[in-house]
## 1
Amino acid sequence: MKLSNRVLNRTLLARQHLLERSALTVAEMCDHLIGLQAQDVPPPFTGLWSRIADFDPETISAGLDGRSLVRITLMRGTIHLVTPPDALRIAPHIQPELEKAPFRKGFNFGAMVGLDPDEVRAHGEAVLGDEPMSAADMRAEAARLYPDRDAGAVLQTWLYQLPVLQTPPRGKWKNNSRPIWSRVQPWLGAPLDAGYPLAELLVRYLRAFGPASTADMQTWSKLTGIKPALDTLGDRLRTYTDDGGRTLYDLADAELADPDLPAPVRLLGWYDNAVLAHQDRTRIVPQGQGTPLRAFATAVAPVLLDGYVAGLYKVFPKGPAARLRITPNREWSAAERRDVEAEAHALLAFTEGDKEPSVEILEPGEDLRV
């Protein structure tokens, strides 16, 4: 059976809870989405606000303090906000590739080449121990132990090897303080769970992002062995093809969305996995317009209009005011502009409720920078 791009779009939005806001709790949504991208502090708050009705940002803060939520390096080597069970069972799949990366020539211009990985790890374990430690203090120890190496590269190597997670206060509502790191087991009081099957992780990926190709799953996770893992699922899966003839896998009991479903305006956080979790992103990024990954690095985030990325936005808080500027990727109708403006004001009320809001929609392609 062939699936149109529109079916894939509406199915992704439905599974991402972007067609209507959900009654799921924060923890339930984190589990369903297999974490939210949290390389920076604001995006998971915006991502959950866009998906959960009456979302209270203090829920994340309380979860981080109470250790029912954690910020940990997982898919694609980036920080994700997840529940402790996912931290413990997904990390063993990610760690092997993370640990290899620092000793390759491409890592920080070969800064770690020639060092013994086991010795570097042992030094890192001795430095970090069982108590949280700031990145600055770890870097100072790296400079002491390896005076002829880039201390920042040594620090990053430790953060890949140990494994570790970020502890609060960083990641709490409006708290962008510098990272403090802890090894996973002392913080969560449990060891990593190496017995979680990759196949079950892929089942969960399909529930949140499917139907999808093996290349999509690899892009999302950066894991190998995808196809053999899928083969173990047998009749739990069914297959489709897309407009380009690629094979797409999905769960046999998963529903496809009606392509005619209306899709409300949504403003996502930068690097939201709804946009990044497929190799072929045309189901959400219109063909020919590219994916603005470089822009995301400057806190520029996507606007979804009729279910597709139709523009970019950025919030500029300054003193008593907060400006939200938007640049469309195409011409918008008057009705589309009104809908986007309304959602933008709602987002400002959420993120900058104590400031005087203003929303500015620019011309297509116009520079967002002030």
## 2
Amino acid sequence: MKKVARRLRRAAAGLATAALLVAAAACGQSGTALGERPLPADRPVIAVTPLDGARGVRPRSPVRVTVSGGRLERVRVVRTGDARDRPVAGRVSGDGRRWRPLAGPFRLRGRYTVDAVAVDRHGRRTARHTTFTTFVPRHRFIGYFRPEHRSLVGTGMIVSFEFNRPVTRRAAVERGIRVTAWPPVAVAAHWFGGRRLDFRPRAYWRPGTEVSVRLRLRDVQGAPGVFGVQHKTVRFTVARSQVSRLDAAAHTLTVWRDGRRAATLPATAGEPANPTYNGRMVIMERHEVTRMNGDTVGFGGEYDIEDVPHAMRLTTSGTFLHGNYWAPPSTFGVANTSHGCISLRDVRGGGAPTPARWFYESSLIGDVVEVVRSADRTVAPDNGLGGWNMPWRQWRTGSALR
């Protein structure tokens, strides 16, 4: 436990000095954001090549980030989902209008994220987040996975693989992945279709647990004529326990740390027409600032909030727990006004000591957020890391090795 405590202190120090990260985001089960405030026309516009979500990008294809109506404040391009984050070195031009990588080509079988922040002459920021994957040879498959190697995570972390091609020989692939823990605990696999495979124990991991993920997929046949390429071992550590409960009827978020109540924060959740999911969700991503744009989820120009502070993703479909500076302070603890997200009081820029900032700095990827007394259904087990909502007996039936 002393080792974990030291790593926690180092992680906290790293979070305090981390670069400003951004993500194009939606809010709520339908992807809507809390608040509908159109983006002023004179804001900077960030363009990224390749396009967001592009697949099969050739390694020598150009990767560019440009901005009009402002200058690039920072750009971060990272290769993710394959043992550890690997930043891509790049340079912003002297006029602040363009970013390009310093070297190339990009690697085959890679998943990349692009996070950019631009600022206009008034000091107002705009964020952009995109992802793309590079070409995987036709006869190969790869599993992009979380968490990253040597990461420090919360007790609700689920080991999750997303395959670039459908797996039809699931038993062979499942045999090629072994998840073990110390102290020992039984870990079971569950397939969600042919592209996703998750692993978890019966209950949350014990704090201090060391988890090892052994991949032996090289030359394993995942589908007729399609073979794996990965051969590596990934390890991560489970930190302290933090489980937060959002009572949607009482408008409060209660934070429990190692079994003791650490705080009760006034919150606002989804309005009656767009309630927040019930059930247990897990923090998947953390961003000091993110953009929430209705265009990405079919809401047209209804809203575009370019600088949502202290945002933590809870579901793949777009549920976030984030800071909110645009709602009146009297909203929190009194009413549910969002389109599905959970929000805490914050200030623009996120620099002041607010409930949202405290929660963000107190949280890790893998921490659990449970919602009760909301009018919506329970979140699906495959929406984000929602597998804790499936009973253990049912979870075990999802293995191909039964």
## 3
Amino acid sequence: MRTKRKMGCLLVLLLAMAACCTVPVLLSAEAGQQGGGQGGPVDAKAAGIPERMLSAYTAGATQVTEHVPGCKGMRWQILAGIARVESNHAAGRQTSPAGDISPPITGPRLDGSGAGGNTSAFPDTDGGRWDGDTAYERAVGPFQFLPETFRSYGKDGNGDKTISPHNADDAAVSAAVYLCGGGRNLNNREELRAAVYVYNHSQAYVDDVVAGIDRYDSLGASPNVPSGNAGVVVAAALAQQGILYSWGGGGPSGATTGICCSPGGQDGRTVTGFDCSGLTQYAYAKAGITLPRTAAAQAGAGKRIPASAGYSALQPGDLVFYGYSPTSDASIHHVGIYLGDGKMINAPRPGQRVRIDPVTALSDYAGGARPL
């Protein structure tokens, strides 16, 4: 039946209460490479960046060409370079799974007194909405936007239909749009420096930011792709990074529109992309293996790896499952493809894109399967 075939990872048993791949925002540590970006996966701890902030930077870099099609070379390292100087990656704050930062980050009052090194007065433009100051402006959020600037460049980075400089995803994609201008080529060193100078008219600031970008660039490395059919599966899945999540979307032939509707309200019929089990179907089809459509059914494909065996039992190319009960395949609601080194390629949820995530990002690990 067509409806059942297109269910995505949706559990038929739990149709009324649970959604396939609709899980908390996962913490990503992969590089956004849309628009000519460079670099590959990097360990957030090695970079000194909280995982949730790094996820925001990678997503922002990926999304920028939706808003500035001519932009080239935007990558997470550029956004990290800015945020390191502006807020030290929201140091001392908590960032929720949805990207909201608390307490909010606000800079000194820009009243011309010299606080924060600024001697020009900036009268309030947002009625205190974002900076809590109804008399003068204060820079806000992890990227320290002036409210007036954010009002012009602010974008919805996480698909929740609200735009806030205090949301990591919104702030990151907004900073990417601002840095890209009318369509800069940020692979060009001089254009990169010019973009950073527009952000803050100080050559010392530019030098500081670019030095950070260079360090982050040096951390990138391409994921190891295994040999044989496992390598075919991994390479096929990795090639889909940046493609939108679509509820019920995707299958053996590639990205497709999906079905209506996810518990969060996404109408997959309006989005071309993959849900979690649509992505795994596609990757395994490249190796000549046909998987069932739902995550729960895919648990029966090949050798089952019990959750009790731990993550160390997984091999690159294996399916990685998450379920409400680790011993019940019927409870499985999500699936990814293991890459090795504790990471998986994953289509996480509506509003997000195919990306690399740590396998520990979800707490209800339900083992794996080895169809190869």
